[in-house]
Structure formats: structure tokens, C-alpha cells
Write a structure and sequence with these properties.
The chain has about 500 residues and is α/β, with parallel strands linked by helices. It has 2 domains: about 280 residues, Rossmann fold, CATH 3.40.50.720; about 200 residues, Orthogonal Bundle (N-(1-d-carboxylethyl)-l-norvaline Dehydrogenase, domain 2), CATH 1.10.1040. It contains 23 helices and 11 strands. Strands 5-2-1-6-7 form a 5-stranded parallel β-sheet, with helices on both faces. The protein has a 3-stranded mixed β-sheet with strand order 4-3-9, sandwiched between helices. A hairpin with a 5-residue loop joins strand 3 and strand 4. Helix 11 runs parallel beside helix 14 and helix 18 packs across helix 19. The longest helix has 24 residues. The protein binds D-mannonic acid (CS2).
């Protein structure tokens, strides 16, 4: 079967939407560098930019992976082209052409630096996952992080996104080129401000003149991003090959729902993202809290409780009436009261729509994938709701049940000798190795992981007690524990 690339693209015209600008004499030049070309980026920001490119502008994307060669190896033979399959009540397919190239920083450093320092590069967007920011439990740059320490020595090319961005911005300063605008697209609370502060903290260690310049000039809006975009599997590759009639090495699948809210501080010179559906807001905080707490918190809860109950996908877990009753009660009783939603948001409808999205039978979203990196995700999506409820004297039992389920998930991974995908995996598995099933000691061991649980939580008696009660019940009979918490028995 022939390959999807610039040569075979024209043959697809009429079969599905294709990036016609790729066939024109005058092609869009690169104006955006993206760090972290994973599935979510390719289903979300790259799609928004694809739609924006229909309105013109030099906004093609140079996608950069820090180390992994996989995406480059798959897409370079395809001239960056790939298929987006939208799998929902209605299925649709679109060839995405906004990614012009995929580089690997560890192997093509000079090319990556050239892209980042080019005056034509106006934006750097990021999906490097929570761990990529190298933050401590207070949300600030961890200056003791091993890779940050390595980049601060400057003895080799940067290994962190922060180190790479600093090096590029310092070169732009020396060349009297304005900084690019940073756009974090990760599920972090206050993502843009945390990224900006981390970069300035790094600069203060390296060169206070650059730090001062960045504090004056660097734009880094907060954002909220949303679209359920599971990892690509062989099934979707075969499905796309059948539709296109050409081979796509790495198509992307996602649901129909997609949303991008950006703090409205971007320069006027920007891609036509608004025409593509991006919402610009003065304050993204309420949108971000609504999404992290009403989508990501239930997602993680489904992942850990669902894995303990033996479910494989979100859709499978959503068939369990006791589990969905528990999730609904957790949302109603503990998550909704924990924050103030955007005035314009019908938060009940928003939450109901999210649960309907979870039930989408066309999307096979693995619970084990959502369970990755819990030490980085829970401090963004569940612990803040617990802290807010504790401060307000509100209930936390069901949220604490989710934390206890995460602990038991780690013990399960350890006892079954299964890989734990988490930047703190070694530390967490060492805790699991000491667990005996006695909640008194086990919960104390987990809450002592201070990179996850700040002192205001780990020393909070109400929090310890809530996690302890849930943990003890989960040790012996997870299903019965869930039923009890859902009020079924
Ligand atoms: C998921 C998110 O894997 C996970 O942690 O909760 O990737 C989720 O699918 C997206 O945030 C949805 O917008």
C-alpha cells in the first residue's frame, strides 16, 4: 500500500478533507514550535491550527520531541501528514497538514535551536505532561530536580523543556529578537503562569539579566484544553488505511468534543485560532477548575477504582451502575461545592455532558493509560478539591476514596510485578513494598510522599482519617467498599 505523503495527498482529494495549502505553490512557513508531539497535541492544537491555516498565515508547526524518536520516525516519511479520525455518534476523517516537520532535540539540537531562535517563530506551544515542568509540590520549579541541575550546569545540551526554552530565549535576547509567546496546553492548574515562573526561576540561576528581560517581556497565557484523545492502536490504523487507501503510520483518534480556552493576552499577530473555535477569556481559572475537577478528577477516579475492579476501558467502567452512582455522588456532593464555575457555564449540563462523553462506545480509552503519572496528576485534579473542602468544612470522603484507590492501585501493580508508569515510580513501589494491608501504617507511608502530599494535607487529621477509612475497606473487598461508599449497601 502506498504511503500518505505530499505526493499521494492529491489523490485523496474528494475522499476526505485534506490540507489543500500543501499542494499550493506558496506554502505556509513555520511560525510555531511545539514541544511534546503526543496524541493529544496532534488531535487538539494541531487540529485547531489546521483549521486556522484555512484562513492563511505562516503558522505551520515544527514539532519537537525532547528524546523519543517515535513520532519523527512515523511522520517524517509522511512529510508530517497524518489522519485525524473523529470517532463519535458520527465518524469523520481529516488529513492534518499543520505539522511541517518533527524534530528530536537530543539528536537534532542545532536544527531545533535554529527553529526556536528564528524571528519567524512567534509561538511555542507545549504538551509535555505535568512532569515535564519539573515543579515541586508547591508548583514552583524544583531547583533540586536532577535534570534541572544538569541543565543549570550547562555542561551539555538541555535535557528539560525549561532548559531548552531558556537557551533559546537567551539566544533571542543576544540577537535582539523578541521572545516567542509560550502557550502551555497541559492539565496543570494555572499552567501558563507556572511555566513562566519556572522559566524565570531557571533564568535567575543562570543570568539575572535574562531573568529580568523575561519578567518584562515574556507572555505565557493560561489555557484550558479538552478533548479525549486515546493512544493510537492497530485497530484505528487498519480503519484509516481502509478509508484512505494509503498507509498512515500514525493516525490519531479522538472524540468529537474539542475545546481550547486561552487567556486573552496573545499578540495581535496570531493564527486564526478564534475562527477555528478557540475561546479567548480574560480569566481562564474558572474554566480550568471546571475541567480539571469535573472531567479529570472523575477520570482518575474511574482509572484507579476501575482497575481495582478489573475494568479495561472508561466505557466499560461506565457500565458499572454502582461505580457510576459513586462518581455522580462524588461530583454532586464534593466536587461541585468545591469551586465557583464560570458564570456563563451551566455546570450541571457541563458535567452531564462529560459523563456522556465517557460513555462514548466508539472511543476505547484505556484506564491503565489514564492511571499513568498519578503522582503528577492527583495534585492538579483531586487534591486541590480536597484542600478547598477541608478549608470550607465540607465533605471529602469520596475524594479521599479516590486517593485510597490510587494507593491500592500502586500496591496492586507492585504485588503483580506490573510496571508503574510514574516519574516517582521507584519511590512509590518502595512504599508499596512496605505495605502490609494495615491502613495505619500503609496510609502513613503513602501520605509521607511529600512530592505528592504537601504538609497541609499529610498532617491533616481529617484527611488522614478519610483516606485511612477508605483504604482499610479497599484492602479486602474493593467492590463491597465501593458499594458502601455509593450508599448501595
Ligand atoms: C486523562 C486526560 O489521561 C488522562 O489523565 O484524564 O488526558 C483527559 O483525557 C483529557 O484531559 C481530556 O481533555
Amino acid at each position: 500500500m502506498t504511503q500518505l505523503n505530499n505526493q499521494t495527498l492529491a489523490s485523496l482529494n474528494g475522499k476526505l478533507p485534506i490540507p489543500a495549502y500543501r499542494l499550493a505553490e506558496q506554502k505556509p512557513q513555520i511560525g510555531i514550535v511545539h514541544l511534546g508531539p503526543g496524541a493529544f497535541f496532534r488531535g487538539h492544537q494541531a487540529w485547531y491550527t489546521e483549521q486556522a491555516l484555512q484562513f492563511g498565515g505562516d503558522w505551520a508547526i515544527s514539532a519537537v520531541s525532547m528524546r523519543s524518536p517515535d513520532v519523527s520516525q512515523a511522520l517524517t516519511p509522511q512529510d508530517g501528514l497524518y489522519t485525524l479520525a473523529v470517532l463519535d455518534a458520527v465518524q469523520s476523517y481529516q488529513v492534518i497538514g499543520s505539522v511541517q516537520e518533527v524534530l528530536i532535540a537530543s539528536e537534532q539540537y542545532s536544527q531545533v535551536l535554529a527553529r526556536l531562535t528564528a524571528a519567524s517563530t512567534k509561538y511555542v506551544t507545549l504538551t509535555i505532561t505535568e512532569k515535564g515542568y519539573c515543579l515541586n509540590s508547591s508548583g514552583k520549579l524544583d531547583l533540586q530536580h536532577s535534570q534541572i541541575l544538569l541543565d543549570l550546569t550547562g555542561s551539555s545540551q538541555p535535557v528539560t523543556a525549561i532548559g531548552l526554552l531558556f537557551t533559546a530565549l537567551a539566544a533571542r535576547y543576544q540577537a535582539n529578537i523578541a521572545p516567542f509567546c509560550l502557550i502551555s496546553c497541559d492539565n496543570l492548574t494555572d499552567n501558563g503562569h507556572k511555566l513562566r515562573n519556572a522559566l524565570i526561576a531557571f533564568a535567575e540561576q543562570k543570568d539575572p539579566v535574562i531573568a529580568n528581560w523575561l519578567s518584562q517581556q515574556l507572555l505565557s497565557p493560561c489555557t484550558m484544553v479538552d478533548s479525549i484523545t486515546p493512544a493510537t492502536d492497530d485497530a484505528i490504523k487498519a480503519q484509516v488505511a481502509g478509508v484512505l487507501g494509503v498507509q498512515d503510520n500514525w493516525p490519531i483518534k479522538r472524540e468529537a468534543f474539542v475545546q481550547w480556552v486561552i487567556e486573552d493576552i496573545l499578540p495581535a499577530d496570531r493564527p486564526a485560532w478564534q475562527q477555528a473555535g478557540v475561546i479567548y477569556a480574560q480569566d481562564v481559572t474558572a474554566f480550568e477548575k471546571a475541567k480539571l475537577r469535573l472531567l479529570n478528577a472523575p477520570h482518575s477516579t474511574l482509572a484507579y477504582v476501575g482497575c481495582l475492579l478489573g475494568y479495561e476501558t472508561v466505557c466499560d467502567a461506565m457500565q458499572d451502575k454502582v461505580l457510576t452512582q459513586f462518581i455522580q455522588q462524588m461530583i454532586n456532593d464534593e466536587i461541585m461545592p468545591s469551586f465557583t464555575p464560570p458564570a456563563e457555564l451551566d455546570v450541571r449540563q457541563y458535567s452531564n455532558d462529560i459523563l456522556a462523553r465517557f460513555r462514548n462506545p466508539a472511543i476505547r480509552h484505556l484506564l491503565a493509560q489514564i492511571a499513568w503519572d498519578g503522582s503528577q496528576k492527583l495534585p492538579m485534579r483531586i487534591l486541590p478539591a480536597i484542600s478547598d473542602n477541608l478549608a470550607a468544612g465540607q465533605a471529602i470522603d469520596k475524594l479521599a476514596f479516590a486517593i485510597a484507590a490510587w494507593c491500592r492501585f500502586i500496591v496492586k501493580r507492585y504485588s503483580e510485578n506490573e510496571k508503574l508508569i510514574d516519574p516517582l515510580a521507584e519511590q512509590l513501589l518502595a512504599v508499596a513494598a512496605q505495605c502490609s494491608g494495615n491502613a495505619d501504617t500503609d496510609v502513613a507511608l503513602f501520605l509521607a510522599v511529600d512530592a505528592v502530599f504537601p504538609p497541609q494535607l499529610s498532617l491533616n487529621k481529617a484527611f488522614f482519617s478519610a483516606v485511612h477509612t477508605a483504604y482499610q475497606q479497599l484492602v479486602t473487598r474493593p467492590a463491597a467498599a465501593l458499594a458502601a461508599y455509593a450508599g448501595v449497601i
